[in-house]
Design brief:
Number of domains: 4
Number of helices: 29
CATH architecture of the largest domain: 2-Layer Sandwich
Shape: globular
Mean pLDDT: 80
Helix content: 40-55%
Main location: other
Low-confidence stretches: 1-8, 135-152, 302-309, 586-612
Pfam families: NDK, Thioredoxin
Strand order of the largest sheet: 1-3-2-4-5
GO molecular function: metal ion binding; nucleoside diphosphate kinase activity
Keywords: Cell cycle, Cytoplasm, Metal-binding, Nucleus
Organism: Monopterus albus (Swamp eel)
């Protein structure tokens, strides 16, 4: 809990329009992480921001997170999943960065802070900017409407894909059709194709990851100078990953290098200089996904069941960053995870014992490589994450690449396992569940189910009970016990015994005995904290200001009549559950008809892993 307080202090939480306006009045430079409620702020950069704050120690530098869903001024950012950082100098937008590019973010913070201090100290001119996310753009809205009316382009999830661009120089010289023929002759399948002239803003956004390079402005001007051909390509036969195959076909970005080493490549044949090198190719699978969303928002990968008309289900999978990579490349790997569209509901850093490694990898104990795996896994803390998203198991395996490091480097050099391989270490530094069944088993190993006690109070029962129960289940909780009862005075006093010395104790007891309440046992990973977060602050007025979507903010009226109650710790939860329901263990569930049923308890071979 201490770590969370520290993080909250680092970044002010802005969750409504009033707080947003107060934040804009802050003197100095404020860097705002704009996020959607469903995916949360960009956790991958928190340690970087803390490092910058500690190193600079400047009172004029501020960090904040802002929930776009509940702030009117950020309406245009809703529905976007890419990390976005807005830089404000005394209320004016001075810079925008999209994507969790840590080096660029650090450089921009230092530069923009220096500019802001110059304005404040010497009265210099503050250069405000505009961002498409906040500015009404009729053309953009018209395109959006057209896109909504178009049918989605869906291809099987088993195919890999990349984005290709025939650049303005090749189009201007009449070479586009010739290049397209060569692409098809080489065995690439064109899944989508359109001719398009990028605006300067679009070119700047598309090449944002190159903003730190000296040629960035020239690149933006060139790419918006005339029409390009945008294609989505699928893999050639016999290739697991199209990205390296396409990059091999187009050749090196440097024209002289392409002509010298790959004279048959597209760039060697059609490029005229390094900037005008005829064609573009995504650097890796993650960039291909981002570029695909940029140009073809209705293009998406689908499973076989989706092609029969079913929605691709949201899945969960386990990701492990092993000790060496967790120590050296943690933030960069996390940034890649978020860029790939995953949400991370839970993450935990744990130091495993040898016995725990044997239990987790029980299927591999007899393999020749197991001693090396055992040594690697016990070398330091492992970062375990639950990743959630459509087709998460397959998507994460795709991004990871082959489990054999040598094969990964040869066949998929842009995959995560190849990119984050450790020198002189033969084993992969990243793990992903092989199947949905393995995912649930492995998630349960690192994030064992927890129970908590929840109470829907008498004042909320009649009007809001069903809404609250619906939200509880929608929040991923399992209701393993449910009891509707009127508490006697003796039960209420015992239930709230830890508050006996408080001046409001008698009033609280009388209120809780006033009518029926619903008492529930909720089960979920991290259930205690998750339920407390869903409830919100004890005082509904405070909840409305800081957590407007919480249950207490929406259904409570004051501290006494605050709609719901929850245990404050796992120990207190166990005590209250025993008091209300007796010795029920952890293996009860509520059937659809409301009766309590018994089910098999958690597999005893998996141990609860505590944080070190």
């Amino acid at each position: 809990m201490a770590a969370k307080k520290k993080e909250a202090t680092l970044q002010a939480s802005v969750t409504n329009q009033e707080q947003w306006e107060e934040m804009l009045a802050t003197k100095g430079l404020t860097v705002v992480d704009v996020y959607q409620q469903w995916c949360g702020p960009c956790r991958a950069v928190v340690s970087l921001l803390r490092k910058i704050k500690n190193e600079l120690g400047d009172d004029l530098l501020h960090f904040a997170t802002a929930e776009a869903d509940s702030i009117d001024a950020l309406e245009k950012y809703r529905g976007k999943c890419e990390p976005t950082f807005l830089f404000y100098g005394c209320g004016e937008l001075v810079a925008v960065l999209r994507g969790a590019n840590a080096p660029l973010l650090q450089r921009m913070i230092v530069e923009e802070l220096a500019k802001e201090k110059l304005v404040l100290e010497q009265g210099g001119e503050r250069r405000a900017v505009k961002d498409d996310g906040l500015v009404d753009d009729e053309k953009k809205e018209e395109v959006s409407r057209q896109v909504e009316n178009e049918e989605s382009i869906i291809v099987p999830a088993c195919k890999s894909y990349t984005v290709a661009i025939i650049k303005p120089d090749a189009v201007a010289h009449g070479k586009a059709d010739e290049i397209i023929m060569k692409i098809q002759d080489a065995g690439f399948e064109i899944l989508a194709h359109e001719q398009r002239t990028l605006t300067e803003v679009e070119a700047r956004d598309f090449y944002q990851h190159k903003a730190a390079e000296a040629c960035f402005e020239d690149l933006v001007q060139f790419m918006s100078s005339g029409p390009s051909h945008i294609l989505v390509l699928s893999q050639v036969e016999g290739s697991d990953n199209i990205v390296p195959a396409w990059r091999e076909f187009i050749g090196p970005a440097e024209l002289e290098e392409a002509r010298r080493e790959k004279p048959e490549s597209l760039r060697a044949q059609y490029g005229t200089q390094t900037l005008f090198n005829a064609v573009h190719g995504s650097e890796d699978s993650d960039q291909a996904s981002r570029e695909l969303a940029f140009f073809f928002p209705n293009f998406r990968m689908a499973s076989a069941t989706e092609q029969d008309g079913e929605e691709e289900p949201v899945e969960r999978t386990l990701a492990l960053i092993r000790p060496d990579a967790a120590r050296e490349n943690r933030e960069e790997i996390l940034a890649q995870i978020y860029k790939s569209g995953f949400t991370v509901p839970l993450q935990r850093e744990v130091k495993l014992t040898e016995e725990q490694v044997r239990q987790f990898y029980f299927q591999h104990v007899e393999e020749d490589y197991f001693p090396a795996l055992l040594q690697s896994m016990t070398r330091g803390p492992v970062l375990a994450l639950i990743l959630a998203g459509p087709g998460a198991v397959h998507h994460w395996k795709n991004i990871l690449g082959p489990s054999d490091i040598n094969r990964a480097k040869e066949e998929s050099p842009d995959c995560l396992r190849a990119r984050f391989a450790v020198e002189n270490e033969p084993l992969s530094q990243l793990h992903g569940s092989a199947s949905l069944e393995d995912a649930e088993r492995e998630i349960n190993f690192f994030f064992p189910k927890q129970r908590t006690l929840a109470v829907i109070k008498p004042d909320t029962m009649e009007e809001h009970r069903e809404n609250i129960l619906e939200e509880i289940r929608g929040g991923g909780f399992s209701v393993t016990q449910l009891k509707e009862t009127v508490l006697s005075r003796q039960m209420a006093e015992e239930f709230y015994k830890e508050l006996r010395e408080k001046p409001f104790f008698s009033q609280l007891v009388e209120f809780m005995c006033r009518g029926p309440c619903t008492i529930l046992v909720l089960t979920k990973e991290n259930a205690v904290e998750e339920w407390r977060s869903m409830m919100g602050p004890t005082d509904p007025n405070h909840a409305k200001a800081t957590s407007p979507s919480s249950l207490r903010a929406r259904f409570g009226s004051d501290i006494l009549h605050n709609a719901v109650h929850g245990a404050s710790s796992e120990q207190q939860a166990d005590e209250k559950i025993h008091f209300i329901f007796g010795d029920i263990g952890s293996d009860a569930k509520l059937t659809s008809d409301g009766e309590t049923d018994r089910t098999i308890s958690d597999d005893p071979q998996f141990v609860t892993i505590q944080n070190p």
